Amino acid sequence: MSSTPAQPDKAHYDNTDSNAGETGTRWGRVLNQVADSPFWNSRVAQYGTGVLAFLLFALVISVPLDLMEQAIFAACTFAMALLLRRTKGRVTTLAMMTLSISASTRYIWWRLTDTVGFENWLDGFFGFGLVMAELYAFAVLLIGYFQTAWPLGRKPVPLPADTSTWPSVDVFIPTYNEPLEVVKQTVFSAMSIDWPADRLKVFVLDDGRRSEFRKFCEEVGVGYKVRGNNRHAKAGNINAALKTTDGEYVAIFDCDHIPTRSFLQVCMGWFFKDSKLAMLQTPHVFFSPDPFEKNLDTFHRTPNEGELFYGIVQDGNDLWNASFFCGSCAIIKRAPLMEIGGIAVETVTEDAHTALKLNRKGFNTAYLEIPQAAGLATESLSGHVGQRIRWARGMAQIARIDNPLLGPGLKIGQRLCYLNAMLHFFYGLPRLIFLTAPLAYLFFGAHVFQATALMISAYALPHLAHASITNSRIQGRYRYSFWNEVYESVLAWYIMRPVLMAFINPKLGKFNVTAKGGVIEEAYFDWGIARPYLILLVANLLGFAVGVWQVSFQPDAEVTTLVINMIWTAYNIILSSASLAVASESRQVRVTPRVAATLPAAIRLENGKVLTCQTDDYSQQGLGLTVPEGVQIPTGTRLQVSLFRSDDEGIFPAVVTFGGKGRLGVRFDNLSLAQQAELAALTFSRADAWVGTWGQRQQDKPLSSLGGVMAIGVRGIRQLMTNIVKSVRPRTTSNAK
Predict the structure, then answer these.
(1) What pTM value is reported for the model?
(2) CA pair distance 633, 263, nearest whole angstrom
(3) Is-catalytic flag, 114?
(4) According to the UniProt record, where is the region Disordered (predicted)?
């Protein structure tokens, strides 16, 4: 079985990683020169170096050291990692990974050989539980490094100049219960995709079978597809449409994912270059905040939960020809799709399972990290949790019925990439163990480590520190340090049971549709969703208090052990309280979120006067405009707003909704369907609509990120106390009456 990854052009390697480019230091240049040496082309050198490296690695992880020796060793290797962190280049990233793997493997080796001689059943119960959680985290760390070691960095391939050779494409927009206003924008933008008109057909696949959708599709001239049942949900909806359409390729968009006009021209070139390519995926970008971003006020400041997958992981998968189909913003070649029986229906994550089936058949899948569509994120935490439960259940189903480690057709790199995707969703139980592990000692005196506190620190801290700074370097623009623990803490309780049950019985559970396009009229605290976090917070606060009492009043207390467990408990308090902050739902009164963008515009008043200005933001319903200082236009004034793209101008009737200090807000006034389509072409469908901000965040700074998470934890406790008071006051008032 070959482990050779997909071979990209040299230019692909030159454009990988956030640290790609000129090496910043002399040591970086030396390391890269060594890596490019012809010496490595010799097979003898490769095998000999591999054997030597393995022997040295085995020695490094297994040689026994006393406390002082281990501390010196850990300090030296971490100092080396800090020096490497200042050096740009992919080779130094790999060197940091090597140091991290060495520190973590050494910790796990020591953990299994020196710390599990438990003396009673209580120690064994809690101790072995923690060991299993650590082994899970270690496996995810190792495969994650493999998966992200060298992102491919695929670039667009130009299409042939002769447009007559361009294939026919069917655009599928599946919908079930979403509002027409949400679906309209996607339809308008799909209609404006730059492609020969005789080879582009747009279809709305309506599993809700709604008359207003049929009427809308007839009015704008797009196809409308329904079926007699809703079997297999979205997958069945698409498969039914495949039987009644004939495009050579199918572009699929969730009904709230709005494509740019350049989508096909940017993406289709790879299908001409690679005859075995069956699917090409682009990132999922969201122009509205998800519940974490909305409730924690981190939108556009902190990478959201999905950015790591679309920014690094998918690009790393691409090197190994294991890019996942993600259900939307993708193109699939019809012939290979029909060869595997259409979209997979055996699991509720039909998208990833479809990609797995294509790879098993020997077809290639690809990922192009250029945002060419954007959509609506889930509005509420409960909706977000429901969506993640479905993803987790589906991955557990695939692990049972079509495990990538088993069966034909996959190379080792593909198997590991799919395996890590599935392992990821089993984090529920390990995360809960980490959130409660120190309480075993604080409450029950259970020794989950059969070692001294100082030895635990000497081995565990290097493992954690190396993993932290290495992942910070790899993921820095797409996932900030310590935020992964926040995301997992919020979701752990809710995905644990569905994942375990689906793994035991893959037929359990059903497809649930994620609601989009709603509003939250009043802020509220979701007590139902917050219950697990509240229990964890109270338990850890009590554990910390017990630790303080023992340190203060028990003369025979193991102070060092208590302090270490209290520090761990304090960190768990931060995570639990941050989870509570996410459960405090903020208001969301706009049905159509606004997109920040600076576009050329003009205002035409009823008296004929024209003012040149520009947009601050736009939505389907209105614009925010920057106007010249001193311009005063009363609220309620009717006017016309022009938007421009190159030589195109769109003119839209509008009403002023607010004004002052060089800003003006307008609401569009009864736009016709033709005007709505033109507005979409000038705003959401612009080729550069989403690429300007993608991957442009500041590089992660671990200490700053920790400070940010701690601040959110404090905010969570404050919000909890405020909402407890609010919930008690009405009862008190009622009793008084």
Answers:
(1) 0.88
(2) 39
(3) no
(4) 1-21
